[in-house]
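Suppose a colleague, Dr. K., hands you the sequence of a protein chain of 118 amino acids and asks what its three-dimensional shape might be. Before reaching for any lab equipment, you can write down a predicted structure in C-alpha cell form. Begin with the sequence itself:
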Amino acid sequence: MEDDGYVRVAAADDVGGPPFVRVTVEGTEVLVGRLDDGSVRAFSPRCPHLQQPLTSAFLTGTTLECPFHFYAYDLDSGANTFPGDDDDLALPVHDAVERDGAVFVRVRGSGPGRSATS
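The predicted structure, expressed as C-alpha cells, is then:
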C-alpha cells in the first residue's frame, strides 16, 4: 500500500471499460474503469436500485447507466441522475488514480493497513 492510502489494483493497460475490472480493495468489491477522456474511476460493482451487476454498464462521459433498469449515476459524485426519480440512491464511488503504469484505488471511508487483490 502507498503512504497516501491508495492500493495498486491493476496495470494501467488492463483497465478499460466497459466491461470493467473487478477487484477487492480493503475488503470492498470495486469496479475500475476508464472514461473516454482516459481518466480512471472506481465504484461499487452493484447498482443501488436492485443490486444488479454493473460490470457491463453503459458509460457516457462521467455517467454510468445500469443495463437492467437504466438507473444512471455520476461517477464523480455517485449521485443518482435517473430522470424523474425522487429516490436518493447513490452509487458508492472511490478515489482512483493512474501513475507509473498502474491504477491505484483508495476506498472512501477506509483506513490504512489492508491490501488489494484482483
